[in-house]
Design a protein that fits this description.
Elements: E1 2-5, E2 16-19, E3 25-31, E4 34-40, H1 52-63, E5 68-71, H2 80-88, E6 92-96, H3 105-112, E7 118-120, H4 122-135, E8 147-148
Parallel strand pairs: 1-2, 5-6, 6-7
Antiparallel strand pairs: 3-4, 7-8
C-alpha cells in the first residue's frame, strides 16, 4: 500500500491511499473511463480546508450507488452533509462506533442525522472496508459484528 498526498490530475489506481494536502480540498472526478483526483482552495467548510464534505459530495457524483464512505473519530460535523449526498445517491456510510472513538463528533453527527448504515469498532473497520470493496455487494454475512443503526429512512430489516 502506497500513501501519498493527492495532486490534481492523479489517476486513481488500486493499492494507493491519497491524503488531501494541507489547506486544499480534495475531490474525485470522472475523466472518460478514468477517475482522477482534484485539489482546490475553495472556501473552507465548517472552518475546515480540507473538508470531508467536499470530498464526499464529489464521491457521490462520481460513484453514485457504488460509493462507500467511512467516517471515523473527529471533532465537529464535517462529513454529515457529504454523507447525505452519498446516501441520496444510493451509496453506503460506515462510521466508527462511539466506544472506540476518541471524539464522537463526526461519526456521531452522521449517526444523529440517520445516515450511518453501520457502526464498527476501530479494529474492525479496515477488514470491513476490504470485505465490501472485494465483494462489491451490499452488506451480508458480516465479517465483523456491526452495531445496527436504524433511521426513519432505513428499515430495521435492511442489511
Amino acid at each position: 500500500m502506497i500513501v501519498q498526498e493527492g495532486q490534481s490530475g492523479t489517476e486513481l489506481n488500486p493499492g494507493y491511499v491519497w491524503i488531501a494536502p494541507g489547506d486544499y480540498h480534495m475531490t474525485v472526478l470522472r475523466d472518460g473511463n478514468t477517475i482522477r483526483l482534484g485539489v482546490n482552495q475553495g472556501a473552507p467548510e465548517h472552518s475546515c480546508r480540507p473538508a470531508v464534505d467536499v470530498l464526499f459530495r464529489s464521491v457521490a457524483r462520481t460513484f453514485g450507488p457504488h460509493a462507500l464512505a467511512v467516517v471515523m473519530t473527529g471533532m465537529g460535523s464535517d462529513g454529515t452533509l457529504g454523507a447525505k449526498a452519498i446516501h441520496q445517491a444510493g451509496g453506503e456510510i460506515v462510521i466508527q462506533d462511539q466506544a472506540t472513538s476518541v471524539v464522537w463528533g463526526m461519526p456521531g453527527s452522521v449517526a444523529s442525522a440517520g445516515l450511518a448504515d453501520h457502526a464498527y469498532a476501530l479494529g474492525a473497520i479496515a477488514s470491513e472496508i476490504i470485505r465490501r470493496v472485494v465483494a462489491r455487494r451490499p452488506v451480508s454475512g458480516h465479517a465483523a459484528k456491526p452495531q445496527r443503526l436504524v433511521s426513519s429512512s432505513r428499515s430495521a430489516s435492511q442489511p
